[in-house]
């Protein structure tokens, strides 16, 4: 195929692969939900090569699917099964950290840098790159930005979007939009970068980003807390927030989730027996060493216990204990997978609506699938609870459960949206939630997004079939 | 004129004014630099009325210039002098605070709310709406967002953009884009709100916003510090930041600025004599009352003094002393105006480049206009220094000075841009800096902005002639 050899000419034959075995990892998402075979996987190593690949693919009528660490949960980095012929453009070789400036609290990284590598580079400069989530050891900066990744630190430092000072993007026609300024204030026309952040590769290819760093944390205190209800958990959250402590993590976990962690986890030990109905993992921090963090946390927990918001609590006494609390949270998804088939969701509601959301969902799911087991775990501090419905214990037939409880996700989404929330909090739309977006977004919103898409990618060659159909 | 009576029918005759006397305040910007007479000033009081006005104006071929508190410094809220017939759409009657939710740390305000009113509503709920700048008693939320306002707190909480959870916008065709969700995480398609924020009214009319609040501050400490050089000031800044203290203000002021403040200010008293070449106003804060803020500031200043970064310092001993420090800063622009004619700039550079920027500009200005007097004051903590060149003492002929030093602004802008900075940090482009944007932005950037503009406003009726010419 002529177009493929043109591409091979740009990146070198070794970096333009077409054999099934080489392509296989790029032809399926990491949960195995989405399959799509690209005509080739192309791995440019410079911005110029990316631009060349985009131009050549466009000229040949090949769609372009940008891919990073491919840890996304909505299928955005895999070609659509029935879409046009496509290449996967993998950014993995574009992986230099171009600059770290401690004084400016900034770092410039190429799209293929693994998130953890960036975190480490920041730490070496005495700074913190504060985004954090389970897949950070595999996920790459380009994917993090294209999906506007969230995670457990959002309540303190925002989503990935909030950590960007500037971007470098290859547009669908191969031109390079160089907006890598590291200034904190720049009001010179539209903030174009925000279209590519969270744009899931449909408007261009992010090739590098100037990222914002924050002061390194010098004190961290974590607690594992038993609470009687989501309402009590939110009471605790409000209390700690209003105290003025710097809350950097606040996870809410149903007992069933902690039971699964204990049952399937390797080397996990729960700090409290899984007897309370709900648990909270809370973490506060300070960049200055003189902040009396321990006292602040003890004080808040004692007052919460007095008011019935907390039934029991363990404050981590060592870094090992602290690491254990967060290992439970990080290993949870794997433990839940081992429990058996389940259907999951990714909703967010305003923080104050978390109790109403969880209670309503629990009631509706129990009424409809009394045999199911609801798991609820998530970033309560920013309203992002991941609800899922597990098959009864011992159930092994995954497709049968998915079919039986297929209505679970729309049901939960509807509750979230009715409470002013989102059906897609942190995972994005990809190819998974096109129908949901079409259903929940207003026609004006969809039409405006499509107008932007047509303006920037009139040929529709950038990741077609993702976010919406044109 | 038929279109005007249609508009009067939508908002009521009293709210559609056409008399010279009524229109005069809307026909000039507050510095008196830009004049443009609208055919009418239309004051809708609801989103529906805004939509009706936009549709009727569009149908009649009238351009629409949205206006808020009209404190902008780039002429965006005034019709262009030689532009198409236009109406000013003033949001002043759309001024309800729709919702304050302390538990969610959120507030929903209509575009016509005065910024200070929103700050007060947040304070009454025990929260902080952290943006702060001189014009906040007049500026409105819609204008704040359309210009992505900055101010003295940017280094801690970002620009106006970072404080937005959701927007309600009337599009150029009169449709309403309702994206007022208050969720912290929402990855459902493009983040359209970021096109309208900083869009200077060229893409639609912001009618309301869901805003992010933060915990109220319970401790604040301010100091007024004499420093030997911009380099020393930046050393102090790095030191305080790296200490982990929560720095919420860091202003750098040249001696000449403090001399003007002392000479022209009413009730201003400098905490230190204006003998040092440079001064810094630094403020650190904490939301938790147990943070030993005073000790943190004293420690940092003592170490800085030992290292020669600081020659003298006064820590405010009372709220009155603290207020005085910041009153000097807030009253400064008025004092500078009273000194006589001057040409100003609005640049930002990466923080680490502030000393190089100030030194280079000082040398070039002195060489070219030895008779001029350079003033430098600004938000050094985010790299945004406002340099200006004053005429010699006693000079009164403003046009003559502007003509003589006309090259000053481009000269300073070029230095900022050469250091990786911006020629338009916080004031925006409006009708003032079209040529600069055309000069400094890459053709790709301009073309991409114009593509977005054409996609959303194909008729070019929204604030034409601002940001760029089409």
Write up what this structure looks like.
The structure is a homodimer of 470-residue chains. In chain A, 35% of the residues lie in helices and 20% in strands. The first copy, chain A, is α+β, with helices and mostly antiparallel strands and 470 residues long. In chain A, the strands form four sheets. In chain A, strands 15-12-14-13-17-18-16 form a seven-stranded antiparallel sheet, sandwiched between helices. In chain A, strands 5-6-10-8-9 form a five-stranded antiparallel sheet.
Output the keywords.
homodimer; 470 residues; globular
Short description, anyone?
Two copies of one chain form a homodimer. With 470 residues, chain A is α+β, with helices and mostly antiparallel strands.
What topology does this entry show?
2 copies of one chain form a homodimer.
Chain A lengths: L1 H10 L4 E2 L2 H4 L16 E3 L4 H13 L3 E5 L18 E5 L6 E5 L4 E5 L4 H10 L2 E2 L12 H6 L7 H4 L6 E7 L5 E4 L13 H4 L8 E8 L1 E2 L3 E9 L2 H14 L3 E8 H10 L13 E9 L6 H14 L5 E4 L3 H21 L2 E3 L9 H15 L4 E7 L4 E7 L7 H7 L3 H11 L15 H7 L2 H14 L14
Parallel strand pairs in A: 2-4, 3-4
Antiparallel strand pairs in A: 1-2, 5-6, 6-10, 7-11, 8-9, 8-10, 12-14, 12-15, 13-14, 13-17, 16-18, 17-18
Helix pairs in contact in A: 1-3, 8-10, 8-12, 9-11, 12-14
């Amino acid at each position: 195929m002529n177009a493929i050899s043109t591409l091979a000419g740009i990146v070198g034959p070794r970096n333009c692969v077409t054999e099934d075995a080489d392509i296989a990892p790029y032809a399926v998402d990491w949960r195995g939900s989405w399959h799509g075979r690209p005509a080739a996987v192309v791995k440019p190593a410079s911005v110029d090569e990316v631009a060349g690949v985009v131009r050549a693919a466009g000229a040949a009528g090949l769609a372009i699917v940008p891919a990073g660490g491919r840890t996304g949960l909505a299928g955005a980095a895999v070609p659509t099964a029935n879409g046009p012929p496509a290449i996967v453009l993998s950014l993995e070789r574009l992986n230099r950290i171009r600059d770290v400036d401690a004084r400016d609290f900034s770092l410039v990284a190429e799209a293929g840098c693994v998130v953890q590598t960036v975190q480490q580079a920041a730490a070496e400069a005495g700074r913190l790159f504060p985004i954090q989530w389970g897949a950070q050891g595999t996920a790459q900066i380009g994917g993090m930005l294209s999906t506007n990744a969230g995670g457990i630190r959002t309540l303190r430092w925002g989503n990935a979007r909030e950590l960007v000072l500037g971007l470098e993007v290859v547009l669908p026609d191969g031109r390079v939009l160089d907006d890598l300024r590291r200034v904190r204030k720049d009001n010179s026309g539209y903030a174009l970068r925000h279209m590519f952040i969270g744009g899931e590769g449909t408007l261009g290819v992010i090739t590098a980003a100037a990222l914002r760093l924050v002061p390194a944390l010098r004190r961290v205190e974590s607690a594992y807390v038993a609470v009687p209800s989501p309402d009590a958990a939110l009471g605790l959250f409000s209390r700690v927030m209003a105290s003025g402590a710097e809350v950097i993590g606040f996870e809410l976990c149903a007992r069933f989730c902690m039971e699964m962690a204990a049952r399937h986890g390797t080397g996990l030990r729960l700090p409290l027996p899984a007897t309370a109905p709900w648990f909270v993992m809370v973490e506060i921090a300070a960049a200055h060493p003189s902040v009396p963090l321990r006292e602040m946390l003890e004080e808040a927990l004692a007052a919460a216990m007095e008011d019935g918001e907390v039934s029991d609590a363990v404050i981590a006494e060592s870094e090992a204990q602290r690491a254990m609390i967060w290992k439970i949270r990080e290993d949870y998804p794997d433990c839940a997978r081992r429990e058996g088939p389940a259907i999951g969701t990714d909703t967010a509601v305003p923080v104050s609506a978390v109790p109403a959301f969880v209670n309503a969902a629990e009631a509706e799911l129990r009424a409809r699938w009394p045999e199911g087991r609801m798991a609820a775990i998530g970033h309560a501090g920013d309203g992002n609870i991941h609800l899922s419905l597990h098959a009864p214990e011992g159930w092994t037939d995954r497709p049968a459960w998915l079919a039986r409880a297929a209505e679970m996700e729309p049901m939960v989404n509807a509750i979230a949206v009715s409470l002013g929330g989102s059906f897609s909090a942190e995972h994005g739309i990809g190819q998974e939630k096109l129908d949901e977006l079409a259903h929940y977004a207003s026609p004006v919103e969809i039409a405006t997004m499509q107008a932007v898409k047509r303006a920037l990618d009139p040929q529709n060659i950038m990741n077609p079939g993702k976010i919406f159909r044109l």
